[in-house]
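Good morning,

Both structures are done.
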Amino acid sequence: MKLATLLASVILILPVASPTNSIATAQEPSSSPPLTRIRPKWVADQGFWYTKPLANGSKEWVWVDPTSKTILRASNFEELEKLAGVPLRNPNNNGGPVRIEPSETQDESRIDLAIRNGLDETVELFWVDFQGTPQPYGRLAPGESRSQSTFAGHSWLATDEKRNPLWTAIGSSAGETLEIQKMQIEPSRDFPRRGRLRRQNNQPPKSPNAEPNPWQVIREEHQLRFATPSGETILDTSSLNDAAGNQSMRYDQPVFWSPDYRFAFTLQIAQGDHREITLVESSPKDQLQPKLKTIRYDKPGDKLDQPIPRLFDLQEKKLVTLENSLFPNPWSIDEIRWEPDSSRLTFLYNQRGHQILRLLAIDPKSGNTSCLIEENSPTYIDYAAKAYRERLDETKEILWGSERDGFYHLYRFSLADGKLLNQVTKGDWVVRSIERIDREKKQIWFYAGGIAPDQDPYFKHYCRVDFDGNNLVQLTDGEGTHEVETSPNAQWLIDSYSRVDLPPVHELRSASTGEKILDLEKSSEDKLWSPTNKPIRWNAKGRDGKTDIFGIIVRPKNMEPGKKYPIIENIYAGPQDSFVPKSFSALNEYHALADQGFIVVKIDGMGTSNRSKAFHDVSYRNLSDGGFPDRILWMKAAAKEFPEMDLDRVGIYGGSAGGQNALAALLFFGDFYDAAVADCGCHDNRMDKVWWNELYMGWPIADHYTENSNVVNAHRLQGKLQLVVGELDTNVDPSSTMQVVDALIKADKDFDLLYIPGGGHGIGSSPYGKRRRDAFFKEHLQPQ
């Protein structure tokens, strides 16, 4: 079933997790549930309406006329329609009727349920709004469960990390668990990929008048045979010297045809070692005896499949020789594209080690290869998280993301010769995502981090800039991280912003100037927090004495004056992102832990992303650092301001890369940290998946891998340790944890091991894992 069809078949309404609201006209009691986001229904260009929850479990109906700056409120839909003076069910801006579901004119039933990831991979979770648009709700690791406050009839969606839909379900009753499993869902072409910095689909559409392909492609034993419609062979790859009889050189990739069908381009794959790991399922549900599970699992330093570009001239019946000095050692070759006149082919070359990235061009007649654009770095090019490229075919240009000036910005190049035309964005801030490109007006709408100089640099603001780099406008200004929805006529912005200590604020702004037109809703803080457990945003100087390090503090609900509380840090220091929450959320896990008598902190130290290139590069070949010198200084500074923080009792926990970090805290910084819970850690980067580790630890494998290894340094253990691992972890080889166990035993070190049969990646976040974690910290950090 197509995703668009599937979504259209379900009743979709707004889920509320926490924030509130108010505005001139009918003020409701301050205990109304927070309104996380306004879901507008636009009526042509006249205005929009939405609903919001009230304290008594009912809802309020709101009509907004941006032109007259009018806000009207009613207790039901019919009353609102009379007040607005316009038929709210009339055709909307897209020419279709505004659909009103029965649930939108009634009070929904709020329910609490759980969503569990039953897959062997991390998924992205979305609530699907009433317009069929998926709204992000974070990630779920394999085996991880999440409690969710929602309404009956809400639809939920899970995708893989590339936003390919995997599963969908509707919550119907309180207390149920929605299990994420594989489903047959055909991806929709218009599935929104918000927050993206990844490359775009740059393959031009084929002309509807294009001639049919006159050639057949016949695949036989990993070779290609090009033939005429009658079957006459034109060219057979098995007859080429470098491929004859060599099963390690395979043609099994798609063929990219030049528009005139004279040339065929493909990738021949030199086969790698194809490493596999074997997992033992000790306690299967369907039989007594254990099961073996073998999966493909390449690791750093392995001989990998290597793509080799091959170009065939079928008119001349030959393989065109390509000199490979510009692509000698490919990690990947993709974004393959022919020019419409067949005069040139381009592709993106990512060199193994991820320090060179090139956009290359091939003259198909001569085979000459030239470099149009090159990125190079002495550390790493973060191709996985920062890889925005958008072709502008109308002007034969390309927008290209790069950290070449020390911050992630956009550049505009000529595709004809690779000449840099101009830097589009510039400054000591970063482009976080590209949301919209107007090719006619030559403008880009994007989110930026750090562009508001007096605010937290991780707060995202919505901005616009011209292709030539002029007329940069910051369209939002409230102190917080922003999410913007643009009106169908692109004239207005509904701006929603929040912080961990501020429930959402909603404003209507001009999409042209950013001028605030109306205050829509402002959530009340009443009854959200006790006097002591409101989250605290805190920043302090890092190891260089200059750079601000940002984090949050969560204290117990019933904190006793004058009492000191152990500190527990939740850590994930993976270089692929930043991790301290910036928008309003319930922070349920942190509050639950704090209310057991701890002070919980979350910090983004150096080495994580979304700041400067220099800030990020601290992690290069240095994952054991984990930003700990910054984290420790941060906690020491915080304890001076909040003396209830006990620096003599500090615990830490994390999973995956965070599990690696948690153990590293006791190995390399054991004079500060006293207890750690390390779940499913990649404790030796030579044991983990190839792409993540070679990206940030580099290639080839050298002594720095050994120096960063928790296994090699296990003898340095100080403090109390609990190791957690699931026997069926397909993300991080569970042997990585067991090798730590082996090294600790050889070093005669005491530790706890929680080995969970049937457990997958992130099993430490299961209810049982959390209970054991909490008990461990109580035993070792709290006095009897």
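Second structure follows.
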Amino acid sequence: MSEDWTRSILEKCGPTVEKPGRYTGGEWNEIRKNPSAVRTKVALAFPDVYEIGMSYLGQKILYSLINARPSCLAERVFAPWPDFERELRMNGDPLRSLENKLPLSAFDILGFSLLYELNYSNILTILDLGGIPFSAMDRGTRHPLVIAGGPAAFNPEPVAGLFDLFLLGDGEEGLLEIIDKDAEMRSRGASRKDRLRELARIPGVYVPTFYESYVPDGGRLQAVRPMGDVPAVIKKRVLRSFSRSHFPEDIIVPNVQAVFDRVAVEVARGCPQKCRFCQATSLYAPFRVKDPSFVIEKIFKSLRATGYEDASLFSLSVSDYPYLGETIKMLMERLEKDHVSLSLSSLRPKGLSADIVRNIIKVRKTGFTLVPEAGSERLRRVINKNLNDQDLWEASANAFREGWKLLKLYFMIGLPTETEEDILAIVAFVDKLTALGRGILSSPPRIHLSISPFIPKPHTPFQWVAMEDRQTLLEKKIDLGRLLKKRRNVQVKEQPIENSVLEAVFSRGDRRLTKVLINAWTAGARFDSWKDHFQFSLWMRAFEDAEVDFQDYLGEMDRKVPLPWDHIHTGIGKRFLSDELDRALRAETSPSCLETTCGACRGCDFKADVERAFIKTVDADWPQRVPLGVMTETVLRYQAFYAKNGPARFISHNDLLNVLQRSFKRAGVDVVYSEGFHPKMQMSFPPALPLGMRGNEESLEFKSRYELGEREFVSAVNRHAPEGIRFLGLKKIESAALSLTERIVGLVYSVDLTSEAGRRGMERTREEKNLTGSEGDVVMHLAQKVLFDKPELLEEISFDEAGRKILLRLAYNSRKSLRPQDIVADAFGLQDAVYFMTRERMIYR
């Protein structure tokens, strides 16, 4: 079913779909179970495009956790890009999961990850293409339960009507409990309402239908209260046994390059810092750390299972991981030998020692980012960003000394108490950083500056403050751009103010916004976090039509009045947040959780969970990597032959390079690397196969220090290649031989006339040119004209009567190429022919 559907829908779409590889599935480590053999089918939905969703660690953990159960199945679905959405609607086809291509209506549970408010319009697209009513009240027993979790779910009210339930907190804690309870209730034939009432008893579960909204006295936004026997406050679920909790090793390796395309291992959850603008501090509290030996073990096993050449240590504040330096040192002792780079997420300058910098650049330089947030030390005290200028200069100097020439800086504008001096301090900061870099590098460093408007988020000390008005923010942005314009080494990246305004509205919103969302989606809102798709005017009309004033959500809020999200408890006390706001207005700092005691702080419910004595031994017992073949003293050249069919033909040439290199890594094929800061596998390829075209005998060339036997090579690589890639053979090439492209003299292509598109094209050509006779006669008549028009490149056209194929033999000229699909289109009227064409083979000297 999966290959038939993929081929059918993508061949119908033709070149109108930008990246068809987003929708094929068939990736390495994909888990494909028999749907009829499981009790519960779960679709894990991510309301953004494939490349972003495949970077999300939470979905990887839940995918592995659910599929580890024999009675459960988890499959993935992502928001289709507008081009594919259009094609699905034109063809009357529902949106399907990647693994078994099941329509969403075939699942028992449809679970959304809500990371970002500007993805909400994509939720409606997924529901609509899945044939699922928008309103939870309109769904019956035949519809899946539509549930959600993630950071944006901590104010669920703007989308409360779309979901049957929300799970607040750590998904590993509550999701399996929901699945088990729902399966039990379904087996007893319980009604949808009874199932939801029973699920509402699970800690951390919020079922909006059992709660009503109201406007409290003195307020302008709707708050929420329970109706009947359900909790008045929903407390989030917390995974307390975090040190060695479930973490996937054999993660899916995407066929289309993801935004963060690497092995990422979570070293800590939560953050001990108390930055007052940061919502994640509350949502992921308390701060918990992974056993360092467990981290190292997971990285090496995952690299082996995936073939990745990049690894990352991930957390909200990786600098606060107490075993960071030792872990990096131990990792790099091995990763350097395997040409694997290491990067760190969210690294505070205080954690960036010279030793850490030296270690992480041993393979290749990864990104270097500073996040001062504010230009002045005074404003950093207001937001409790525990950084002074000296910390930032020392971290930058360490990077410059190790050869970094590009730094990324993140700042916010519109922070509480911000003045003109604070804005000018950003410019002064950039100037001083430029001077520091010039003194060490002998030339000014490149600086990429990201400027974002501040958004007062729920569950933070700033949740009560107003967002600065659009005009003021715009003026600040213009002033900054004008001041920095003359600095040629500085590139400014700005977050559009209108995007931030809409994000603020929905992050602080109430149930009235559901109607606004549906209005905007109906008018065409999609992918609102993408600049080229966002239409603020469309949203303004949606607010007007719903008779909702979006300014209501942006102003200052009374601390005594209930807020729309007060029924959701993160574990951080509201009194504590209010006290922190007072300290902010006095520009007073607060210590981190690692610098104070719970008795002194009294800010949260996690006193017994906060770990401060970090005494674990950093150790690792990893198996030695055994390369394929026998090592030699010389570098050998090889040419490998493979076929590219099935879902693999819908991935681009650049993505194919990654797929093949990772297949080699997994199979243990040791390829020689280039020298320099960014070492690459020494592989070469012939002319790229057009996207969508099959390849029956493709080839590549690589160098290795190992003697490889053809049979063992083919067997090993085929065991580690994704669906659609099959290796056929291997031969050794003389070291003095011409390059791969220099040895090619011709290419043979075929056109399948048995395909629906092929038949239609031939019929159209016959009518337009008034040709009679058999299809063979028609082809040969047209072939003579093409041979006459392009004799220098097109050597032969023939017709395979038995296979009903047109065969084309083209001469290869690296300076003057001829696209075979263009010949087919011009001569035979077969448009979009690439999807029913095959490159049969290449002819070598």
